[in-house]
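Need the bound structure for fe (ii) ion, inputs here:
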Amino acid sequence: MDARLVNTVVSTLPSDDTHPYRTGPWHPQTEEWDATPRVVAGAIPSDLDGMYLRNTENPVHPAITNYHPFDGDAMLHMIEFGDGRAAYKNRFVRTAGLAAEAEAGMALWAGFIELPDTAHRTDGWTARGRMKDASSTDVVVHRGEALTSFYWCGDLYRIDLSTGATLGTETWHGAIPPWGVSAHQKVDPATGELLFFTFSKEAPYLRYGAVGADGVVHTLRDVPTPGPRLPHDMAFTEHYVILNDFPLFWRPDLLEAGIHLPKYQRDLPSRFAIVPRHGDGEVRWFEADPTYVLHFVNAFEDGDTVVMDGFFQRNPAPSTRGAADLEEAAFRSLALDQLETVLHRWRFDLRTGTTTEEDLSERYTEFGMMNPTVATRPHRYVYAATGEPGRFLFDGLVKHDVVTGAEEAIRFGDGVFGSETVMAPRAGTTAEDDGYLVTFTTDMNRDRSYCVIYDAAAPSAGPVCELELPARISSGTHSTWATRTELANATML
Ligand SMILES: [Fe+2]
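Answer from helper R.:
Posting the output first, comments after.
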């Protein structure tokens, strides 16, 4: 393999670390590489054309008291394909928090399961406050750049798609909201718009916005909720966005004392706001069965009905009984089998204001992707991750056929963990599953990582190509696929 070590970032993590989300498949990297990955099985499809990007929580300092994997610094893994060739880079996202902690040689802000008062700094980012904007949750490609983001709101970091360099933060001509932006913005491939939401402890608590392909914020409106909420994702159709108010939020009585303890209020319904994408038309709220949803797959309009698929948690608050400590208790909420996440469909009737809903599967899956060209239209296939029991690790994937209910499942193999797996459609095709599934694996048996490519029409036939990366990468979080068009003129090849 042609690989070049570009840089090594100083880590202060202990060499004898035992933290379950900083060791094994979650062992963070300190090295940044440029590589032409070696093909170790099959061949790179000549009609795979674009870039797979995956964000990673990759910490370089011990937490002040308790580390949670959502706190880790962002590392972006990028692999580009074209003309049967591939190029790979991994880079830290140079956030302001990463720079300040590098200078201090230690963690300065309080993480997800730490009390804000433990932070060494009084400033910070996110809806909670005194927290680092690690930018390690999500990544999208918009206007020829990658944008990384953080789940409790923060800046959007702009990444050069040719070099992996951090270019600074996106401001949208100075119009980015003061609360920042949540992870899980949506880029509509049909219009080039970026749709986003943002939330805060300040009224009105929730806002929706849209940015054109020209980078101009043309819509920003309040979508008030009864108090501070913790939305994680949104969905969109041709004419609407769907925001949410789930009954899992910081306990209001403790919030006044500065304690941010999420509690599931099982006696409250879930609420969904259907908001016109443009203009100031009426926001309509729909009630549904109580749950919490981390991720939606797609939404579309069917006459006067808005249809939305996502992952319903049957158990949004796993029992912490018997947990040895705070971390073990908190980490139960990372496991798909504990949360009991199932693919689910909501139908919102705009004439009657009623919701109907049903499970589409009995299998615990999450992190669902689909052919991105089908966004806002009825989809048939969802490619979703399965979880290692009790852990935040993906041990395989399932191709759900939501029309027939058929499921095609594959496992990566014992000790092998995958990523949020994208579906990359073949250029010029019309069949929804005519394309490739692309993922990164962390293989503990071979102490290596690979980029693995499957035929989306027949994933259980096995990989069509495996490429070796220069180093074993940590397990990570969200990913995206950028087509050649979306890359604009950027290339690593
Ligand atoms: Fe997410």
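Comments: Residues 298 and 309 are 6 Å apart (CA to CA). The first strand starts at residue 2 and ends at 8.
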